[in-house]
Amino acid sequence: MIIDSEFDKRGLIPEIPEDCQFDYSAPVVKEKELRLDGLLTPLEDDDNLPLVFLEAQMQKDTEFYSRYFGGIFIYIHQYKVKRNWRGLLILNDRNQDLGSEIPYQYLLNNQVQRLFLSDLLTAENLSPNLALLKLIVTPENKVVSEANKILESAENKEDFNLRLDLVEAILVNKFPQLTIEQIQKMINLREADITQTRFYQQVVQITEINMVIRLLNRRCGTLSDELQTKVRSLSIPQLESLGEALLDFQNISDLQNWLINHN
Fold it and tell me: What does the pLDDT look like over 179-209, one tens digit per residue?
């Protein structure tokens, strides 16, 4: 066999010394049943979109990496996968002992994204999904305030209820010694006030604006687009104040003066 001179100089595998010797064998690899935690398959018929092998591991497990990658490649072999794949691991912290990373270092650096929940503790302005994951590792003395922040950022009632269920599920696992009733009482989840959510505040503001404009139209005549825009820019407290003041308005000038004084 003729080997190119450049390969001959540096070796077929550059990081192996030229004088390194090996023993050759052909071992039989026995497959055992490995269950994957989660497989995300793109719904779009696009082979450029990868499969995503998802797994969460919160405890020490010295066989985790070997089992995880073993399961991936058995799946690829068994189902004759022809598309690319990526990995997503949700882990507790960077010091977690999950077995040797050395045999899998290239894959961990290039094809697998590892999310360490402990890193989220110092992060700000997290997305709702990351905020929920952060709740898993949030200290017990801060978990109530963090849970309330998640609920208060809901955009609508459906979103609020979904987050409420997820928060409860996380806290049930975080406080296994407590019943669901005790957890609900501890954080007052079932009585969480949806009126404090951004969605509710927006609905209230729109309703208040429309009511005030209708009353102004009756009291002062039809408002111009410019005046309507100014009224719509008012905060809820300003709208409430205007709602009381307009009862004494006689004409458009009264509204214009009020807007100047309360700008």
Answer: 767 777 776 654 555 455 555 566 567 778 8
Gyration radius (Cα) of the chain, Å: 30
- Closest by CA to 38, choosing from 87, 83, 74, is 87
CA-CA distance, 93 to 82, in Å (whole number)?
Answer: 33
CB 189 within 8 A of CB 183: yes
Strand residue runs (E) in 14-98? 38-40, 51-57, 85-91
pTM: 0.58
Q: pLDDT per residue over 60-94, tens digit each?
A: 999 999 999 999 999 898 889 888 999 999 999 99
CA nearest to 231, candidates 221, 245, 216, 219: 216
Final residue belonging to a domain, choices 119, 140, 156? 119
Domain region containing 39 = 32-119
- CA dihedral for 229, 230, 231, 232, sign (positive or negative): positive
| Number of folded domains that form the chain | 3
The token pair that represents 95 in the structure block: 């010091």
Question: Per-residue confidence at 7, pLDDT binned at 50, 70, 90?
Answer: very low
| Residues 64 and 134 reside in one and the same domain | no
| Range 237-244, long-range pairs (CB < 8 A, 24+ positions) | 238/262, 239/205, 239/208, 239/209, 239/212, 240/208, 242/212, 243/208, 243/211, 243/212, 243/215
